[in-house]
Amino acid sequence: MGKKIVIVGAGYSGILTAKKLAKNFKNDDDVSVTIIDKNPFHTMLTELHEVAANRVDEESIKISLKRVFAGRKVDVKLDTVTTVDFQQKMVKGTAGNYAYDYLVLCAGSKPTFFGTPGAEEYTYKLWSYNDAVLLKDHIHNMFRKAAIETNLEERRKLLTFFVVGAGFTGVEMAGELAEYAPILCKNFEIDRSEVTICNVDVLSRSIPNMPEKLSAKVEKRMEKMGVRIMMNTSVVRVGEDFVETKHNDHITSEGTYTVVWAAGIESADVTAEAAKSLQSGGRGRIALDAHLRSLDNEEVYVVGDNMLYTPEGEEKPVPQIVENCEHSAATAAHNITCAITGKGEMKAYKPSFHGFMVCIGGRYGVARVGMPNKMFNLPSWLAMFSKHFINIIYFIQVLGWNKVFSYMKHEFFTIRNCRSFVGGHFSNRTPSFLLVPLRVWLGAVWFYEGVMKVIEGWMTSPKLTGFFGGAQTWYNTIIDANATGTAAKAATAAADAVSAATGTGAAEGAAQTGNAATAAGTVIFNLDFLGLFSTIFVSGKELAHSTLQDLAFKVDVPLINWMIKELIIPNAGLQIGMQAFIVIAEILIGLALIGGLFSSPAAGFSLILQFMFVTTTGLYLGTFWMIFAGIAVLIGAGRTFGLDYYAMPALKSGWNGVSVVKKSYLYHD
C-alpha cells in the first residue's frame, strides 16, 4: 500500500521539504507528497518591510506554488488547516480532510501580543503578504491626509509612527520607514521634522542576537535617519489613536494612528492546537528528538519555526531563522525517506548557522557571519552584498533562474528612488529607441565584413595562414624589435617566416609591415599572467604619431596559438570550414541586427566573434567600438523598430509552456 506524506505549510521549510521529498521519490509511484497552504503562493517573509515601505513592488515577494512545483510529483492543496487527528492520522481543513502516513508540520508563526490591551485590535502586523500591502497603503494615506490637515494635533497623530520590537523585523521596518519618509515628505510637501518614527522595545538594546558593538551601530544609524530609539520601554496599551509606553515606571501616552507590531511570534494556530496533544514548549513549539520527530509520535516531523529542539552540545533551542528552515527541511526529508524505504541511516539534526544580518533601509546593513567557531563583522557594503547573495542562493533552490532574475530586477534594475546599496546606477534607463541606429550600424558593419570575405574567396580557398599567421608575425616583429633593438634582423625574420607559409607576394606585404613596425613600432605594454596568457598592446608607428588605426590589442593565449599552428594551419579543409563559419556568422549576425530579429543572441555572438578575434589576430582600437556596441544592444534592442517586437512574445509564450522549461525554471516573466 502506498505511503502518503502530508506537509502543512508552504513557507521556507515546507517548500524545501516538499521539493526534496519529490526528488527522492520521483520514480516511486507508491509514495505521494501533498503540501497544504491557505495561499496559492509562497511569501518571502524576510522582505515584507520592503513592500510595506514601498521599496519594491508588492508582487515581488510572492512566489507561485504552481510554478515552484511544476513538473514535480507534489500535490498542492489550497486549504486552511484547522486541526490534526493524530489517532486517525488525518489532517482536517475547511475544504477537506487529508490522510497521512507521515506528517510534516511547518505552518510557521504569527505575531504574539503578550496580553497587551488593544495590541491585537489596533496595531498593524508584518507577518504576511496582506499585512505588508495593508501597511504600505496605510502609510501612504497618513501622509496624504496630513498634507491637507489643518489641525496641528491631528496632523501630529497622522505623522507619528511607532514600531514595536527591536529585533530583526522591527529594526528593518523602522529603518525602511525612515528611508521612505523623506520621499513621502517631498511628494506631499511636508517638512521632515514633522514626522516622528519611534522604535520601542523592552530590551536594553537593538538586535540582541548580535554583539553589542553591532547593536550600537544599528542604533546610531537609525538615529541618524531620524528614528527615536526607545529601549527599556514597554508598550502597555494601544488604542485607535494612541499608544501608551512605560519607562522607569513612568507611563506616557502619545497620539498616533500607526503602531506596527513586531515584538515577537508564536506558532500558527494549527501548530498551537497540535501542541496540546504533543510535548511542547512555550508559544506552541513542539518538542522533537534528534531526527526532528515529535517525542510522542515518530510519524510526525516538525521543521522551521515550530521546532523546539536543542542540538547536542548547545544550550539554547535552534533559532527561528531562515537558515534553520533550510537545514531542518533537508534533515526531515532525508529521515522520512529512510523511514519509508528502509534504506540508509537517519541523520541527527546538527545545524551549523553562519550568522545574522540586518538591513536598515536599502543602503545600509550590518552582519556577523562566518562559521560557529569563527565569526566576524562585515562593513555595511559587504553586509548588504551578503544579504542579497544569500537571498539569491535561497531563490535558486526555490524557483531557480526565474526568481533570481525577478529578484535582481526588483532589487537593482527597477529599484525606486535609488534605494539600494549600489544606488540607482543599474536602474537608470535609456529609451531603447535611441539604440536603433547603433544596432543597425553594427549589423551593417558585420554584414559588410561577411560579404567582403565572400568576394575575397574565403568560401573557396584557405586564407587563415595569412589571416592568423601574418597577424602573429606582426606582433612578434614589434615585440622582438623593441626587446633587442635589431630592427632589420626582426623584419627579415618576419618576411622569411611568412614567405615560407604563404608565398612571395604575401611575404613582401608582411615584410613591409614588419619593416615599418620595427623601424617605428612601439610596445606600450606586454604583460604575462603566470604563463597562461599575456596582454599585448602595440602601435605600428612611433607612439607620438599613432592614430587609433595604428594601435592594436591582443590577448595572447599559448593554447590557442598551438591550436592554430598545429591543427588549423596545416589542414586546408579545416581552414575552409572555419572560414565558412566566420563568413556565415558575420552575415547572419548582420542581418539579425539590421532587422532586429533575435537581436540578443546576435549581439551575444557578435561579442563571441570579437573575443575570438582578440585572442587570435588581435584588434585595432578603431574597431573596439563593436565590442561596446554589442554590449549596448545585448538586452532587448530588437523590440523597438525590430522584428523582435512581434517574434519574442510568441516565442516566449511557447517556451514558457514547455514542461522541461517549467520544471527547470528556465524562463522569466
Automatic annotation (TrEMBL):
Q: What top-tier enzyme class does this entry carry?
A: oxidoreductase
Q: Do you know which SUPFAM superfamilies this protein is assigned to?
A: FAD/NAD(P)-binding domain (SSF51905)
Per the UniProt record, the source organism is Aminipila butyrica
Q: Which reaction does it catalyse?
A: a quinone + NADH + H(+) = a quinol + NAD(+)
Q: What is this protein called?
A: NADH:ubiquinone reductase (non-electrogenic)
Has keyword Signal?
no
The text of the family note is: Belongs to the NADH dehydrogenase family.
**Stretches that traverse the bilayer:** 580-613, 619-638
Check the record and name the InterPro entries matching this protein. FAD/NAD-bd_sf, FAD/NAD-binding_dom, NDH-2
Which UniProt keyword terms apply here? FAD, Flavoprotein, Membrane, NAD, Oxidoreductase, Transmembrane, Transmembrane helix
